[in-house]
Specification:
By secondary structure, the protein is of the alpha+beta class. It is 47% helix and 14% strand. It has 5 helices and 6 strands, in the order αβαββααβαββ. The strands form 2 sheets. A 4-stranded antiparallel β-sheet has the order 2-3-5-6. It has a two-stranded parallel ribbon with strand order 1-4.
């Protein structure tokens, strides 16, 4: 027995055009809605990126305003050009107190430096006593900055790292070299020449 499909109603060409127009409008609305969602999603994805970028700029600005920065090659070269500290003396800061400081050999001048690789001598010249100069620095770093350096007269990686920490703290160029700028900015334990006693705290009187 054959199955007959029911007859479909006749639709005029005009009705077909109307239906097509309605369908197109519906598709357009769906497409517009999808496009809106896409734009919202993209904006949502871009927002964290923009926030991260802004945060990065803020961090950069904060770093710039801190005053300290890693030394450039030119700054390292200039810092290393000073002679090595090859002695240590008690340098008076007033009538009562003085500071044991690394100095030049046979001089009270503190216009010298100590740097990574001084073990204790730098180069082939074996004059003076840089071992004492380095020990004086290491003892002061331990007392005034809480470092736990071995007082061994060797300017190794730990001593360099301690000096870098001091330089960051005092907003100096971070080169790991103890020199005149670091000397003047850092805190020191004072020694009383009259009572032959050490101060209980540290200060930067230079």
């Amino acid at each position: 027995m054959a199955f007959k499909l029911p007859a479909l109603p006749k639709v005029s060409g005009r009705v077909l055009m109307v239906l097509a127009a309605v369908g197109a409008l519906g598709l357009g609305a769906v497409a517009a809605n999808a496009s809106k969602h896409r734009a919202a999603n993209q904006a949502g994805a871009a927002a964290p990126k923009a926030a991260d970028k802004a945060a990065g700029k803020t961090a950069d600005k904060a770093t710039d305003q801190s005053g300290s920065h890693d030394a450039t090659a030119a700054e390292l070269k200039a810092a290393a050009a000073l002679p090595q500290c090859r002695s240590a003396r008690l340098v008076p800061v007033n009538r009562s107190w003085g500071i044991p400081l690394p100095t030049l050999l046979d001089s009270a001048s503190t216009n010298c430096n100590l740097m990574y690789g001084d073990k204790p001598y730098r180069g082939s010249n074996r004059s003076g006593d840089p071992d004492t100069a380095i020990r004086v620095l290491q003892r002061n770093l331990n007392f005034c900055y809480g470092t736990k350096l071995a007082v061994d007269g060797i300017y190794g990686s730990n001593t360099r790292a301690a000096i870098k920490t001091v330089q960051r703290r005092h907003n100096l160029t971070v080169d790991g070299i103890y020199g005149p700028k670091t000397r003047s900015a850092m805190n020191w334990r004072l020694y009383s020449m009259g009572t032959r006693t050490w101060s209980r705290s540290c200060s930067s009187p230079l």
